[in-house]
Amino acid sequence: MSEPSVIVRQQKQLGRLTLNRPAAINALTAEMVTIVARTLDGWVSDDRIRTVVIDGAGERGLCAGGDIRAIHADAVSGGTASLDFWAREYRLNATIAAYPKPIVACMDGVVMGGGIGISGHASVRVVTERSRLAMPEVGIGFHPDVGGSWLLSRAPGEIGTHLALTGSAVGAGDGIAAGLADHYVPSGRLPELLEHGDVTRVAEAPPPADLDRAWIDECYAGDDVAVILDRLASHPHPAAQAAAKEIATKSPTSLVLTLRSLREAAGLPDLRAALDAELRLSAFMLRLPDLAEGIRAQIIDKDRRPRWQPATVAEAAAALGTPPHR
């Protein structure tokens, strides 16, 4: 008999949800989203459960994102299963954010894309020395969804814009500085946290943040990706020049739409409004050529040579005009 995709346990007054696809770094499937949502709904009125903990099986990470291969199948065939999955996933993100009991998310190891969605909206977000947090969607022709636009648009200064447009992963110190996490717990003390759910017993001072807001805030201001790229490429700081080179490898369409999504999210009233906007954008991008091509290049063929359409940011901005998803 196969292992369940989510292990559900009750430990005294603790409800524990363990994402259980370690070979896939616990990438989310529709079944997993359903199990987590159904369990959280049941625990709302269960007085035996005081605190919920979400963690991931295996040593590699909490969650590497969604089932990218299934999304690719929809993108190339015109299928609609991804639309249903995103709608359910985004509802779960909103449920986690509004949950009436504390949810402790153990963001150990790899936490990317959908992994941020299932942990970044929790009330207590824990990172370790092994944490690598990222929203890398622009590299596959998509955008930071699962509430990523909401989280990144509220990071200090332009840190969120930098993370969104480069898709870069950050560690514990920068994750906390960017507002993606709250507490630092050494991985060796996670068993204690998973036993009682009280982060105050095991939390320590986080490592220092590495990201330098001086050049980030200067270079990423504004609403024009082409201008941002020019600023980065001409800036004397080596990290800015490296960011320009990294961004230049991403989908131009994704870059333009992602920057618009972040700027729009900054003015929205709440997470649910941001998730609604993201769902509209996801549905639009599912039918664009870059999503299928990006997944092909990164996941299917792994040649790392995507052929983006359009091929430049200027062409993408001109082709998109007023965002069709609005």
UniProtKB/TrEMBL annotation:
Residues 15-318 form the Enoyl-CoA hydratase/isomerase domain. The keyword Isomerase applies. It catalyses: 3-hydroxy-2-methylpropanoyl-CoA + H2O = 3-hydroxy-2-methylpropanoate + CoA + H(+). GO terms for biological process: L-valine catabolic process. Keywords: Hydrolase, Isomerase. It holds the Pfam family ECH_2. GO terms for molecular function: 3-hydroxyisobutyryl-CoA hydrolase activity; isomerase activity. PANTHER family: 3-HYDROXYISOBUTYRYL-COA HYDROLASE, MITOCHONDRIAL, 3-HYDROXYISOBUTYRYL-COA HYDROLASE-RELATED. This is 3-hydroxyisobutyryl-CoA hydrolase. It comes from Actinoplanes missouriensis (strain ATCC 14538 / DSM 43046 / CBS 188.64 / JCM 3121 / NBRC 102363 / NCIMB 12654 / NRRL B-3342 / UNCC 431).
